[in-house]
Amino acid sequence: MAGRFTPRPTRTTVRGGEAAVPASVPHPATAPAAVPHPATAPRTRTWVPGAPTDLGLVLDPLRRGPADPAFRITSDGSVWRTARTPQGPGTLRVAQRGEAVQAEAWGPGADWLLSQLPSLMGALDDPAAFEPRHRIVAHAHHHRPGLRLTRTGLVLESLIPSILEQKVTTDEAYRAWRLLLHTYGTPAPGPTGPLRLRVMPDPRTWSLIPSWEWHRAGVDNKRASTILRAVKVARRLEEAAAMNPPEARARLELVPGIGPWTSAETVQRSNGAADAVTTGDLHLPGIVGYALAGNRDADDAEMLRLLAPYEEQGQRHRAARLILLSGRTPARRQPKMRRTNIANW
């Protein structure tokens, strides 16, 4: 566990356990002012985990495609991410140097981001509670000792892209996320110009995006309406980050259009939910079924039956994540979902 932390401009040590997307001309009533943030001196923090921690494995679930405007990995192995924190927008750069995790942060949300660094890096996760019950899971678990489940403490930043991913291909969802952030997000604080990082819009800006801009991004009315309903109760939804995962999912699912698939995908990231296995996914049941029983045609019911040994541990999501990391997946078939860009209609 991390010790008490008081952000300072100086460095502290706490021990504890692409293709560019061209920007269009935004609608004048809704687009944020494109005023770059000055590259002021960053706030810094060094944190030493109490157990092996792999930066890439921990933070990769937060990336929405290789060109995500809110997430970048640079050639030196550093991870840059932006966030709209309770204290305002912020940029966080995280690098692994030996056993230490070094972080720099800029913007009004810098102190908040640094205070959350341990939980972001999986300090609140408990891998010791996990006991593999299948050979393939045990093998993946043994070879990835640095896997920790991140906990961002922020709901909307995972909820909105998860809504965009409903019932469409991954590429379509990633494209929509890129276009909307480049058009309606704000420039990220700090020296982020070359990376073209953006902070996602605030709830009010999301609510004012005109219908034709959703259409241009390839987002149908159903998904756009779900996002609009969610941002109207943004404060209440953000409270879910402090709840236990079942209560958090129940809070999210009160919003029409948010079901079990979307709530699971969100709380896996915002709450570090080790048992929030994703149901309703097009591919995951077949992958789990193939890896554990040789059944590539498994449905949700069969997947949950196969993962039942991990339910008593509260670790079904971790088991599914290890299966995905094992690389044992069935050969690709013809896509079941037709790619349709409604922006061309």
UniProtKB/TrEMBL annotation:
Q: Which is one Gene Ontology cellular component term of this protein?
A: protein-DNA complex
Q: What Gene3D superfamilies is this protein classified in?
A: Hypothetical protein, domain 2 (1.10.340.30)
Superkingdom of source: Bacteria
**What's in the keyword line of the UniProt record?**
DNA damage, DNA repair
Q: Which InterPro entries match?
A: Alkylbase_DNA_Glycosylase/TA (IPR051912), DNA_glycosylase (IPR011257)
* GO molecular function terms listed in the Swiss-Prot or TrEMBL record: alkylated DNA binding; DNA-3-methyladenine glycosylase activity; DNA-7-methylguanine glycosylase activity
Give GO terms for biological process: base-excision repair, AP site formation; DNA alkylation repair
PANTHER family attached to this UniProt entry: DNA GLYCOSYLASE (PTHR43003:SF6), DNA-3-METHYLADENINE GLYCOSYLASE (PTHR43003)
Q: What is this protein called?
A: DNA-3-methyladenine glycosylase 2 family protein
Organism (species) = Streptomyces antnestii
